[in-house]
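Input record (one chain):
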Amino acid sequence: MFLILRRLRSSRLEGGTALIQSRTRRLSLLALGLLVASAIAARAADPAADLLAGRSKYCPKCDLSGANLKRFDLKEADLAGANLARANLHRANLAGANLSGANLTGANLNKTDLKRANLAGARLGEAMLFEADLSGADLTRADLSGALMGSSRLTFAMLDTANLADADLADAIMHGALLKGADLSRSDLSQTTLRRAVLTGARLEAGSLARADLRGADLRDADLHTTDLMRADLTGANLSGANLRGARMLLANLTDAKLDGADLAGTIMPDGTEHP
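The corresponding structure, as predicted from the sequence alone:
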């Protein structure tokens, strides 16, 4: 009888130990699962780190100021409202990216691919965009004041009401660009291609359009007073109602240009005479 009781007790102890071990294993697995979930959640909670590590292109409103994103592949990335001030995006691929409302003040975007990018309302003051490709990009209401955009491509870009005051756009390609109501005052547009560009109501005063290609451009009601248009090609351009007071049009080509209602007081005409 004693032996039977001893065996029963031993069996119960072994069963209890097995149960404890089983529960311990379950708790360990649960803890491990929680740790993994916590790590995943931590990664998901830091989209800026994921973008910098090349794991993600989704980073709206992220703080990436001063970040080195040189040559990064950010095609079609979502960076809406992100802070990219002074960031290095030299030769980065941002084609089709959403940068609406982003802060790119002072950023290096030299030779960057920004084709069809959404930059509506973005801040690009004093940004470097030398040879950047902004073909088809939406820059509506964007601030590009003082930007360095020499030799950039803005073919069919949308720049309505954009601020381009004091910008360097020398040798830029802006064929068919939309610049209605844009501020281009004091900007350097010398030798820029603006063929068939829409510049109705745009401000271009005190700037340079010397040797610019403005064939077929729409400059109705534009402000061009004291602007340098020396040797500019204005063949077929519409300058109806434009303010050309004191502008310099020496040796400019005005073949088939429309000047109905334009203010030419004090304008230096193509033949060197001053309009009364």
